[in-house]
Structure formats: structure tokens, C-alpha cells
Fold:
Amino acid sequence: MGEKPEKQALILIYTGEGKGKTSAAIGQAIRALGAGLRVGFGQFLKRDFQAGEQKVLKQLLPPDMFLASGAGFFLDGRDHERHRARALSLLDWAMEKLEGRVDLLVLDEVVYALGKNLITPEELANLLDQARKTKSHLVLTGRNVPEWLADQADLISDIRVVKHHFEQNIPARKGIEY
Structure:
């Protein structure tokens, strides 16, 4: 007989072209914290102190449970090795957290890092296997989820654009986009 459903690790993915993937992941993390779960939150590509949510997450989480490892904006082909090194450092951090230290781990923009070849499918698959082994839930965000990863997910929410202020040439706003 299989595991009891409440003991199985869940893989949750927030994807799509719309705004709100990171916000959904933060909401999931706050819900888990409120339920008494141990939460880790890692951000690919985003530099530390770049986004408004980072300040709050650092206040909510223990010091070693938040990491923004990004080297900033990644343009195809430019400085790939430096960006990959940062992505690999976050994967190492995540693997450490999954070794019994978290109940829920958020990996923000991991799907984007995967799509830009900053991490490999095998590296991410190893992390999924570790999450299942340690019964830790994973929340993954980013656009263009590959089919193999979608097949692994228990939940996928596709956030679509209906209307966006960028279409009206309204620039990014502090507290809204970052």
C-alpha cells in the first residue's frame, strides 16, 4: 500500500505569462508558516536586496532560510558561467535545506533558470527526488514549464495576462513589480 496522502511531498508550479507567480509563491510560503511548517525560500536570478518581498521574507524566515543568489538580469549568452555558478550555489543550498530542514521549499524563477540552461533537467530532477525522499513540498515558479516537469507536478497554476499596464507604456513601479 502507498503512502498516506498527507505524507506525500507535493510539487506545486506557478507559471504563465501573467504577473503574480512570485506573489503566489510568497502567499504559499506565508500560509505554510502560519500552519507551523518550516519554510525555505530561494530566488534564482534575483539579486539580494533587489525586490521588495526580500525584506519581508528575511524578517519572517530564519536567517539561513532565505537566499537570493542571482547575479542580476541574464541576457542570453552573456556571462553564462557566472550566472550558472550562482544558480548552482542555490541548488546546493536547496539540497541542504531538503535534507530534513524544511517542510516547504520555494524555488522562485527556477523554471526560467532551467529554460536558460543555467541548471540542467538532471539537476532539477535530483532536487525533485530529494524532496520526495524527505517528504518536503516544493513550490516552483517561472515561465515555459517543460513537459517532463509538468508531468512531475501535483498542481500547476497558469497565470495569464488579461490586461497589463506595460501595454499602456506605464513603467514598473516599486512595490508592484519589484
Remarks:
- The beta strands are 11-15, 39-43, 66-68, 104-108, 137-141, 155-158.
- The radius of gyration is 16 Å.
